[in-house]
Tripartite motif containing 9 (Electrophorus voltai), 704 residues
Amino acid sequence: MEEMEEELKCPVCGSFFREPIILPCSHNICLACARNILVQTPDAESPQSSRASGSGVSDYDYLDLDKMSLYSESDSGYGSYGGFASAPTTPCQKSPNGVRVFPPAVPPQPQHHLLPHPGVLPPIPRNSCITCPQCHRSLTLDDRGLRGFPKNRVLEGVVDRYQQSKAAALKCQLCEKSPREATVMCEQCDVFYCDPCRLRCHPPRGPLAKHRLVPPAQGRISRRTSPRKTSTCTEHELENLSMYCVQCKTPVCYQCLEEGKHSTHEVKALGAMWKLHKGQLSQALNVLSDRATEAKEFLVQLRNMVQHIQENGVEFEACLVAQCDALIDALNRRKAQLLARVNKEHEHKLKVVRDQISHCTVKLRQTTGLMEYCLEVIKENDPSGFLQISDALIRRVHMTEGQWGKGTLTPRMTSDFDLTLDSGPLLQTIHQLDFVQMKAVPAAPILQLEECCSQTNSATLSWKQPPLSTVAVDGYILELDDGSGGQFREVYVGTETICTVDGLHFNSTYKSRVKAFNASGVGQYSKTLVMQTSEIAWFTFDPASAHPDIVLSNDNLTVTCSSYDDRVVMGNTAFSRGVHYWEIIIDRYDNHPDPAFGIARGDVLKDVMLGKDDKAWAMYVDNNRSWFMHNNSHTNRTDGGICKGATVGVLLDFSRGILLFLINDEQQGPVAFDALEGLYYPAISLNRNVQVTESLTRAYRQDM
């Protein structure tokens, strides 16, 4: 709440607002302060007399007060009207906030019979002008004077609540000797109670049970706050504000719409616009709140950086002293100069970080104050009063949020000392000993655990550089072990910060780590992440890698083809070791085609029968017999075919390098295949006369 206090003080008097009014520039000022800074402009005749005296200034120069120089930018402390050669200069004042304030105009002495009664404010002189003490915009008052400016009832209510919260604690009204602090107030009894007196004099039973008890501060405010007055139009004082002019962005009355300048403008219901602007302000506050949270976290990082700089500085000095003490006497004469360099760098880093902390703290205090003020404004139930200030507040919130833009929350200095001592030269070169810049290698990456996962026999890892690291990174190296506690091996080298590794072993535990590199070398490893693959091997057919003529259904478990030519489809899981078995059921078999079942590499041809190239090993079968085929070579002819409802089993044994096929549990094979290192996918080729469904997948052994 303390940060909000600056929002509640008048820029002229420096005190809390009293009867604040809203200037056209959206800034606020006390009504009394507005009277004090009024400036009386010359009468309408003055331009003519000045022009007659040869001033050469046009009527427009006198009337357009926004273009007049009302104060000196050279900080002379005096202000004058540009264009009036005969106008005397008047000393300016400054408010407690440091804002330049103009003194009250001295009107001509009125005749005694025209003096107002005591206690009545004197009338505002004709041709009066007021300058906003914050943005220095000037404007001429009309016949209504200061009454033409709307009162900021919302701000007045916020000030009252803030002052009430700062007031001394209320005392119980029923304690006899030393009154204790009140804890509740009964709205019906209008009495403040402490806890003992409430239990004794106001028990929660009988008729008193229906009384409403509120906190003391709320009770005090309800006592002192008069019923909310209905907002009236500044131009038609007898009319209530009921609509909102979208073009002028101000509440208006019914008479303004009938007769005034708003008759042709777009208007909307006051209540609807009140809710709309409250929602817009709330949304803007949410974004600003996120920026404030980031700023707080950033300040914590900066404060930690101060500690790291201190620690690194001490460590660096110790190393430097140890090296210098190990050298001959000539090195000791150079030691003082080197320590001075380190201390200078040390102090420079601390100064830069502390200056940034100070700057960010001030900005965060202002942001927090604005947020608290806006939250208090949102609590107001006065639609017209809220709408009078909502646009300005929304602009301020957006503008403040923009000040926390890109680069604001980035450290201007690192905590590392990019210096190292070269102690290799011979003794005769000791007088040329100097610091050389340390080759900066990247820091250890941070694994983003929330994005790392494993699925079936694949693992996805994600990482990032530390937030305070400013060292350039050329790429990353991802390493995995073999799933059995063996040596790490590189599985990815590149610039991406996320990688999916396929073809891992089922039911295996893998360790992974990543490091960054640049032209200076390779950095440290990240922390090691342990990932577990699925215990049971399973797959479905992969539509992404299948031939376009392949038709999949049943959650990619059932496959057929739209072409009369053979087309290849593979599973979405690859195998690299162990023993695996899967079964395929023949759902439809027409006109005696030759579907093929087996395994394939990822780059197998998709528009020919499986086994036609050297990337696949398969058994193709018709209704009478089967053949094994690899690289378009046909071998191992065996009797026994397939029909609708038949089951084809495939057994893949990496340890022995064999494929075994079964048709309705009758063995067809086995045949050998080159079990080279790499990934092998379950695969099928078929045409439109065949439809099959995968029904079973098993991993018999994974430790081969």
DSSP finds ten helices and 39 strands in the chain.
